[in-house]
């Protein structure tokens, strides 16, 4: 196991413990309309007997640092929307509206407009309205081109029949489009420690700098309303990797077989510099699957 991986694991455990402590006082703000979420992908709020809302918030992590360094902003807005909308999809939410928060040292025309256009185009792809946002200049916090993004999405909770997960159900993984928006602190450390030049290094035939900026898939575009009626559970594979996120969709103590024997070509890059095993990689990255669903075997035909 690599030193990089060990450090990441310790941070995750510490964060989980802090969240558990925080939840104890956070729940004191709730009223009876707060439904919460057993899956933990998005929150739910019951407005009345007919209307339930889902809400999710997220950012793009340290991928924004590479975006600034490469001056590549054309897909980072889709990353932002997808990190929220894919979580919403896990609770069968239909996107209604999105708000963004963009912070930087000083607003630069090209960066600002390309990021906002990217957010807008992503919202249009999932029939979601970008209704507002916030722009903040903080020169004491951000240097040069560096910036940060966060977003908030509200959706209408769809009504579907609940299906019980049972023995011999089928796990289906929907392909990712690269690393999405996770694991970039590790990736950046690999680049820095090994003095890699992203514009002169390749993953397959694609420049590393271009590959790393591939935007996160919008999985609302992959699943129809008919598909969703037959799905027993859905998981968005983000921080914590394939295994941990998939397990969040299951009843406790459920046994499953989810073995990845062959990883996509981009993981040769990770293995080369960290010597991480497939199991270790599956606890950090999506392993080529950005979204998983569980269905009855009959429904998969």
Write the layout of secondary structure elements.
Blueprint: H1 3-26, E1 43-46, E2 52-59, H2 63-70, H3 76-90, E3 93-104, H4 109-125, E4 129-137, E5 147-157, E6 170-175, H5 184-193, E7 202-203, E8 206-207, H6 208-211, H7 225-230, E9 231-236, H8 241-247, H9 266-274, H10 278-281, E10 289-295
Parallel strand pairs: 3-4
Antiparallel strand pairs: 1-2, 2-5, 3-5, 6-10, 7-8, 9-10
Helix pairs in contact: 3-4
Name the features.
301 residues, alpha+beta, Phosphoribosyl-aminoimidazole Synthetase, Chain A, domain 2, 2 domains, five-stranded mixed sheet, three-stranded antiparallel sheet, 10 helices, 35% helix, globular, disordered N terminus
Task: Please give a structural write-up.
- Helices cover 35% and strands 22% of the residues.
- Strands 1-2-5-3-4 form a five-stranded mixed β-sheet, covered by helices on one side. Strands 6-10-9 form a three-stranded antiparallel β-sheet.
- It folds into two domains: 133 residues, 60s Ribosomal Protein L30, Chain: A (2-Layer Sandwich); 131 residues, Alpha-Beta Complex (Phosphoribosyl-aminoimidazole Synthetase, Chain A, domain 2).
- The N terminus is likely disordered.
- The radius of gyration is 20 Å and the shape is globular.
- With 301 residues, the chain is of the alpha+beta class.
- The protein contains ten helices and ten strands.
- The relative contact order is 0.17.
